[in-house]
Amino acid sequence: MKKNLEVTTHIGCKVLCKYCPQSKIVEAYGKLKSKNVMTLSDFKKILLNVDNKDTKLIFAGFSECFLNKDSVDMIIHACRQGFKIDIFTTAVGLTKAKILKMKKAGVSFYAVAFHLFKSDRFFKKDKFYKTVEFFKSNIESRVCKVVEVRKVFSRAGSLFKVDKKPGKLVCLNNFVYQNVVLPNGDLFLCCNDFSLKHKLGNLFENHNSSKKIESERKKIVSLMKKEDSDIACRFCEISSCFDKNNNIRFGTNKDFLEKDDRFKDKIETVNKLKQKIKEKIKKENI
Ligand code: SF4
Asked: Which of 10, 22, 74, 225 could be stapled to 37 by a disulfide with Cβ–Cβ 3.0 to 4.6 Å?
């Protein structure tokens, strides 16, 4: 099974985007009494348990990766190990020197998303766009765009309270296979599990495709089908629930279903997804 692995290079992101529940992750991780910052050698150790053939890396997770002083060296190392890499960044901490260092090392990315963020502390529009342009003119990537947050999600109920979803669920983004590794090697369900509710294993000790971790993923999928299960997905906008007539409710995506030219591409994507889920329901008889 193809997977994505999000890398959280440190805990406690000082960018403090308005829609990111940092206090939740800081509180939850604090209870583990583990190291807050991933070093280059930690990262190398983690990659020994990840296969570049079935897993793409995403530097994102629960914090801005460029605020970790080792992040550029981690990216260079991952590139040399043959990993496909995506990056999701606010560009805070991304300097010209870091961009040129990646260029010199021959780093290229699969997809890059510059997150147009809202933060009282850091956002300077001119600086942000200058960094984006400098990056684009020096680093190769298949896709590179500025992504704006149009709608604030609850992050599975971590940012604000949401109603618990009943019924059988499916993750519309298949994030059961896009897990997040933390500085102590712990692997958690997804980037919406800010409360660290679902630990799947530890990548210092377990291979990302080990039986142990795969069976934890399967457990989550089966809990999604249990009506009374207490999992983060029940509070997450990315999950979709089915009623008895197999009607799919698209949560956040329903916004895109309105007849509006601006959302044409999104409508197409959602419709494809809808079709895929219908086939899945039919196949699995759920
Ligand atoms: S439904 Fe939400 S909480 Fe569950 S795996 Fe998907 S993104 Fe994560």
From this structure: 10
Is residue 172 lining ligand 1, measured as CB closer than 6 Å?
A: no
* CA distances from residue 125 to 16, 51, 60 in whole angstroms, order as listed: 16, 38, 21
**Dist. CA 103 → ligand 1 center (Å):** 35
Q: Which residue has the higher pLDDT, 27 or 243?
A: 27
- CA of residue 173 to ligand 1 center, whole Å: 8
Return the number of other C-beta atoms located less than 10 Å from residue 2's C-beta: 9
Nearest CA to ligand 1 atom 6: 171
Condensed to tens digits (0 to 9), the pLDDT of residues 38-71 reads: 999 999 999 999 999 999 999 998 999 999 999 9
280 CB neighbour count, 10 Å cutoff: 11
CA distances (Å), origin 212, targets 48, 174, 200, 239, 249: 17, 19, 8, 24, 32
Model confidence pLDDT, tens digit, residues 253-265: 333 334 445 445 6
Taking only the tens place, the pLDDT of each residue in 75-131 is 999 999 999 999 999 999 999 999 999 999 999 999 999 998 888 777 888 899 999
Report the SS3 class of residue 186: strand
Q: Which amino acid is at 120?
A: D
DSSP state of 185: S
Q: Check if the beta carbon of residue 217 is closer than 8 Å to that of residue 206.
A: no
**pLDDT score for 122:** 79
Give the contacts of 250 (CB within 8 A, at least 6 positions apart): 172, 240, 257, 270, 274
- Residue 285: Cβ-neighbour burial (10 angstroms; 0-12, 13-18, 19+): exposed
From 153, 174, 196, 236, give the residue whose CB has the most ligand 1 atoms within 8 Å, as the site to mutate. Answer: 236
200 lines ligand 1 (CB under 6 A): no
